[in-house]
Specification:
With 263 residues, the chain is α+β, with helices and mostly antiparallel strands. Helix content is 21%, strand content 48%.
Length: 263
């Protein structure tokens, strides 16, 4: 039996791959580091000129790969949500691809895969990582029946630390979460039983890492002002009720006079 045409094609492709050797991927930098808000470019290049059909960039997040950008000469380029208006291809050469984040954010921290669909080898990939140095902080508080709860949150890289300018003899609790992309989240919770003891002082959350420091003051509003307002409203309501009672009694008294005065 003569070998089929498909068998000859498969044999030819195998010999072709062996003779030429599969190209490798070179990344511009294995680990790029930028400050938050700066532009960041990731680049991958094939070592040998090849017939690249399509290039795909993926983000390695939470142990899964998410497509963020694709390009081919036939279908053009596509930037996937939520990266539209935040990044784009800065090289449309199929065997030398690069993408640029216009203003890198903390969420862009992580590792990225450049995936070349190459004929006749199939998929060939490279890996490069991006670290964005920055700090995102927030603080809020709540007072209920004289009990104060203040919460300070920080997310950043390198790892941030949280402290308070005054603990008022109380000990805050702290929780840390290290994300797979290297970012660290910290939450500090301070509970004070007698909020009146700090009503005339400022409470400040201090957040810092190796690159920057931030202070977030908490202006404690005096609850007495709210109590006084509530008291005035209550007195106003009582006054209205008292006036209505007096009017009712006066009206009933007049009716009684008219009734008994007729006899």
């Amino acid at each position: 039996m003569l070998p089929s045409k498909m068998t000859f094609q498969a044999l030819f492709l195998s010999l072709f791959c062996v003779v030429l050797g599969e190209p490798n991927v070179i990344t511009q930098t294995e680990h790029m580091k930028v400050n938050e808000g700066d532009a960041a470019t990731l680049r991958c290049t094939l070592t040998e000129p090849s017939d690249v059909l399509q290039v795909t960039w993926q983000k390695d997040s939470e142990k899964k790969y998410t497509n963020i950008a694709t390009y081919s000469t036939m279908l053009g380029l596509k930037i996937h949500d939520p990266y539209q208006d935040r990044m784009n291809f800065t090289s449309l050469v199929l065997n030398d691809t690069s993408i640029t984040f216009w203003a890198a954010s903390l969420d862009d921290t992580g590792c990225y895969i450049c995936l070349f669909n190459v004929f006749p080898y199939g998929s060939i990939s490279g890996r490069t990582c991006l670290s964005v140095f920055g700090l995102s902080v927030s603080v809020h508080y709540n007072i209920s029946r004289g009990h104060l709860i203040a919460i300070c949150n920080a997310v950043g890289f390198p790892e941030p630390t949280i402290s308070w300018n005054n603990l008022f003899n109380y000990t805050p609790t702290q929780e840390k979460v290290r994300h797979t992309n290297g970012l660290m989240s910290i939450t500090s919770k301070l509970e004070i039983s007698d909020s009146q003891s700090i009503s005339k002082q400022d409470l400040t959350c201090r957040v810092s890492n190796k690159n920057e420091e931030m202070e977030l003051p908490i202006k404690i509003k005096n609850e007495e002002g709210f109590s006084f307002l509530g008291l005035m409203i209550a007195l106003g309501i009582l006054l209205v009720i008292l006036v209505l009672i007096l009017i009712t009694l006066s009206w009933r008294k007049r009716i009684c006079k008219r009734t008994y005065g007729g006899y």
